[in-house]
Automatic annotation (TrEMBL):
Matches recorded under InterPro entries: Glycogen_synth (IPR008631)
Organism in which the protein naturally occurs: Hymenobacter metallilatus
Protein name per Swiss-Prot or TrEMBL: Glycosyltransferase
Gene3D superfamilies noted in UniProt: 6.10.260.10, Glycogen Phosphorylase B (3.40.50.2000)
KW Transferase (keyword) present: yes
Lineage start: Bacteria, Pseudomonadati, Bacteroidota, Cytophagia, Cytophagales
Length: 612
């Protein structure tokens, strides 16, 4: 039985909170996970004093947004509804409703395209008042600027609806919504502004293109580099938002340095990200769920590998990495190097067992490899044939046992019809091949230039039978609709034994946190916000199944050897030790629950109220 959680004390009971994000009902990246997962803990404290604000894109919103009709909206008496009704009176296209996620928060969505006829004037004002340059041919920037103008209008009206001593806190996430901040401050709209950058835009570009990014950070000329990467308008918006906010925040101590040198402002607070752990952890069944979803991965592995050669699945470990395809930033390069070294160690050691490593990311592809699909389809036919033979033998064996005058087991082969024997033999002849199992499941648009594939070719880590580390590169996200896995990403994570995320640049890093939330050990790095947070706040984190590769002030070779050692130690654990480790991981997950981490946000809101 779960112990009831006491209701937290309300934060600033005389304040309203509007959280503004591009990814409200609009899943395009990692901020969606931050906002969506934080909702239940935020609603628990702020209740009807909380509302989210985002852009309205019908194709994205239709599956998770339930708008209020006119009658429902008219019945609401709060300032949010009042501001929406006032905007509608003025002719704006704006809707209010419920975001159909855990917590069911109220949401205001505004169509950015409605002010496109005024874009020229809006862009002119941004240049004249804030020196934000804007090109004529960038539709994303046009959407961002249009939404910023509409968000300003909504907050102006909301501030007028509020009756003192009630106040309005506005929390903007990322540069895509932050463009509204300088206009709010210039027009002295009475709202208390918090701005969070989850990763500086320029920092991400620099890290992708400079292997010594952290060493060069202090010497960066932000404007020259922004022009070099053709992102000056967005970077200028981000800087204006950082300087215009009452409270400027970021998500980790690592990104504090970026903010100082690239945005020229020291953050006032660090807001670490969490997860709504109850969504992911089935308190008494997570070991059973691991077995259930591991069996689904077994099915994939048999279809992928066993037509070429077989190995003992009971002595096979499933490792994976996932995330945006940033070969260097996400540590794919380091992971591959460590896997090649691990493969050599295993071959030399004489230890039993194999490792199957999954790379789950997103790359342009033409189609799923027909060989992979056909292998899966034929194996399903083999399974259906085996089940038919099993049923036939079972019925005949039962009859033979009942009619038997002795106690010997009869010849089971004689109980199978020739039809099924022939079908069984022909299916296996059709399925088996001397070709090596492919390392990639899809046909990429640009196979020759893919960094992962090129490393595997150079290192000859191409699923040879003697390789102890097998590779499955899946350049699409795992989904129930996938004909290869047929499962949710979270289910796939639960079925694996270890997640590997030794990022070089990672402002926070949800992927290892999602592993921990599901009771799966994870490797991160001290150059990820999550890894840095773990090192600072979780004593004996390795005992809890969270491993941190040291990459700060370490060479690539040193980091690769440390990661190899971690993997080597992991593959030597026996089944009982792995079960104990998963228990330790699951028990530590609560440390990262939004109920515990939300307090950092509350402090930032209180600081914003004090400052303005």
């Amino acid at each position: 039985m779960q112990v009831p959680v006491p209701t937290p004390e309300p934060v600033a009971p005389d304040a309203l909170l509007v959280e503004v994000a591009w990814e409200v009902c609009n899943q395009v990246g990692g901020i969606y996970t931050v906002i969506r997962s934080k909702v239940p803990a935020t609603v628990q404290v702020w209740d009807e004093r909380y509302c989210l604000l985002g852009p309205y894109f019908a194709h994205q919103a239709q599956g998770e947004f339930e708008p209020y009709d006119d009658y429902q909206l008219a019945k609401l008496s709060d300032p949010f509804a009042g501001a929406v009704l006032e905007m509608r009176k003025r002719g704006y296209d704006v809707c209010m409703g419920i975001w159909l996620v855990t917590g069911r928060p109220r949401v205001v969505l505004i169509n950015p395209f409605q002010v496109y006829p005024s874009l020229g004037q809006i862009k002119s004002d941004l240049w004249h008042h804030h020196h934000i340059p804007l090109p004529d041919n960038d539709d994303l920037l046009h959407q961002v600027v249009a939404f910023g103008e509409l968000a300003k209008v909504f907050l102006q009206i909301l501030a007028a609806e509020v009756v003192p001593p009630q106040r309005v806190i506005t929390h903007f996430h990322e540069w895509m919504t932050g463009v509204a901040i300088p206009a709010l401050r210039r027009e002295q709209v009475p709202v208390h502004v918090v701005f969070t950058t989850h990763a500086t835009l320029l920092g991400r570009y620099l890290a992708m293109n400079d292997p010594n990014f952290y060493d060069h950070l202090m010497q960066v000329d932000w404007q020259a580099e922004a022009r070099h990467f053709n992102i000056e308008p967005a970077v200028t918006m981000e800087r204006a938002a950082a300087h215009g906010s009452h409270v400027f925040t970021t998500v980790s101590e690592l990104t504090v340095r970026e903010c100082i040198y690239l945005l020229d402002r020291i953050p006032d607070a660090v807001l670490p990200n969490g997860l709504n752990i109850e969504r992911f952890v089935a308190l008494h069944e997570f070991q059973n769920l691991h077995q259930q979803y591991k069996s689904k991965i077994h099915e994939f592995v048999m279809a992928h590998f066993f037509q070429s050669y077989s190995f003992d699945l009971d002595k096979t470990l499933y490792l994976f990495t996932s995330g945006r395809y940033e070969y260097h930033n996400k540590g794919f390069d380091l992971t591959l190097e460590a896997l090649a070294r691990l493969n050599y160690r295993l071959q030399q050691s004489g230890l039993e067992g194999n490792v199957v490593m999954f790379f789950i990311t997103k790359r342009p592809f033409h189609s799923i490899n027909p060989q992979v699909l056909q292998s899966r389809a034929v194996l399903e036919e083999v399974q259906a044939t085996c089940e038919a033979i099993e049923q036939q033998v079972g019925e005949r064996l039962f009859y033979a046992a009942a009619a038997s005058t002795d106690h010997r087991l009869p010849d089971l082969g004689s109980m199978v019809d020739d039809y099924w024997k022939l079908r069984y033999r022909r299916l296996l002849q059709t399925w088996k091949t001397s070709n090596l199992p492919p390392v990639i499941t899809h046909n990429l648009v640009d196979d020759a230039q893919d960094d992962i594939l090129n490393f595997l070719r150079r290192s000859n880590l191409v699923n040879n039978q003697h390789d102890r580390v097998k590779i499955v590169y899946h350049p699409d996200f795992v989904a129930p609709t996938s004909p290869l896995f047929g499962m949710e990403y979270g289910q796939f994570v639960r079925g694996c034994h270890l997640g590997i995320f030794p990022s070089y640049y990672e402002p926070w890093g949800y992927t290892p946190l999602e592993c921990v939330a599901r009771g799966v050990p994870a490797i991160t790095s001290d150059l990820s916000g999550f890894g840095d947070y773990v090192m600072q706040t979780v004593p004996n984190h390795e005992d809890k199944g969270i491993f941190v590769v040291q990459r700060q002030e370490k060479s690539f070779d040193e980091a690769a050897e440390e990661l190899t050692d971690m993997l080597w130690n992991f593959v030597q654990l026996n089944r009982r030790e792995r079960i104990m480790q998963r228990n330790n991981v699951e028990s530590s997950a609560e440390l990262f629950d939004w109920k515990n981490l939300r307090v950092h946000y509350d402090r930032a809101y209180e600081l914003a109220l004090e400052r303005s």
